[in-house]
Design brief:
Elements (H helix, E strand, L loop, with lengths): L1 H15 L1 H31 L20 H18 L4 H24 L12 H34 L3 H35 L11 H5 L3 H19 L6 H20 L5 H26 L13
Helix pairs in contact: 1-2, 1-6, 2-3, 3-4, 3-6, 4-5, 5-10, 6-8, 8-9, 9-10
């Protein structure tokens, strides 16, 4: 038992310490810059000047603006790491990172769509232009909703000061989950990249559709997050039986499920599901904080879980 207690902090520091986070940030940023150069110069311009054959389905390989898509993919990977990094520290920050990731996925898609816009008087009759409008408005709305969610999260954090001695065991279990998630997501990302690359043939004249590329890794990622949220919900029952906390944690699970469902559809329905997911999460935490400010007379007094 003592060996386990000694090993766990060591592994946690190896994967999720502040020093590791800083190193990961530098590596990811360098990879993002390098990937942008490769996509822009080596691929797009080699195709443009006929040094490489142009694939038939080449939405990402014909316009320099679409090259921004690639470094954004690395930024998203770093956001995944930050999500795991903040999991033991703050549950609301962990949920915020989920919302930030799905918003960045929409922003990344906007860069690709910018390169294929058809500027004409029939803007609202062109499917691609109309979807770009939906995503543009959704990204602005999500940005504001995340701001409101973070404000509600900070209110809760301020109120929770002084309760650390009560929640240490719950934090230890969240650290264990975070330790498991780091190699799991790394393996998933590596497998996804290898599997997708294996599906490409050097002599092939086509590449996978944009929708399949855009959902690459992240549909499985949010599936795992649903399982993680459910585990956190079940573990929280050991530390609290307060109704508003149970509803808050359950609501976050529903929010994650709605985000995951958005990958199974396309177009306006996908965008609506994402916005509704974040709106639902914001409503849940706002109501929860009102419970915290105005506790009911008959509220249960069992120990609270952060």
């Amino acid at each position: 038992m003592n060996t386990k207690r000694n090993i766990m902090p060591y592994i946690f520091d190896m994967f999720l310490s502040e020093e590791t986070r800083a190193k990961a940030e530098k590596i990811i940023l360098k990879l993002a810059l390098f990937s942008f150069f490769i996509h822009l110069v080596v691929i797009i311009y080699l195709i443009k000047f006929d040094f490489l054959a142009q694939p038939l389905n080449s939405e990402l390989l014909t316009n320099p603006i679409s090259a921004v898509y690639t470094p954004f993919s690395f930024i998203l990977i770093y956001e995944v790491y930050l999500l795991i990094y903040y999991l033991p520290k703050s549950f609301t920050t962990y949920i915020t990172k989920q919302y930030e990731i799905i918003t960045l996925i929409i922003i990344r898609k906007l860069f690709k769509d910018l390169s294929t816009l058809e500027l004409s008087a029939n803007w609202f009759e062109i499917k691609g232009d109309l979807q770009f409008t939906y995503d543009l408005l959704a990204s602005l709305l999500l940005f504001y909703l995340i701001f409101l969610f973070q404000k509600q999260g900070r209110l809760k954090t301020i109120k929770a000061i002084g309760e650390n001695n009560v929640i240490q065991r719950f934090v230890k279990r969240k650290k264990l989950i975070a330790i498991i998630l780091v190699p799991l997501f790394f393996t998933m990302a590596l497998y996804t990249l290898i599997d997708w690359s294996a599906g490409l043939s050097i002599s092939s004249s086509t590449i996978p559709s944009f929708e399949s590329i855009n959902n690459l890794f992240f549909d499985q990622f949010f599936t795992v997050l649903i399982l993680v949220d459910v585990v956190l919900l079940l573990i929280s029952f050991f530390y609290t039986d307060q109704f508003h906390k149970i509803i808050r944690n359950s609501g976050f699970v529903i929010s994650t499920i709605l985000i995951r469902m958005s990958f199974g559809v396309s177009g306006l329905i996908s965008t609506i599901l994402i916005v509704v997911a974040v709106l639902f999460g914001l409503a849940i935490i706002a109501i929860h904080n009102n419970y915290e400010k105005n506790p009911l007379p008959n509220s249960l007094n069992k120990q609270k879980a952060s």
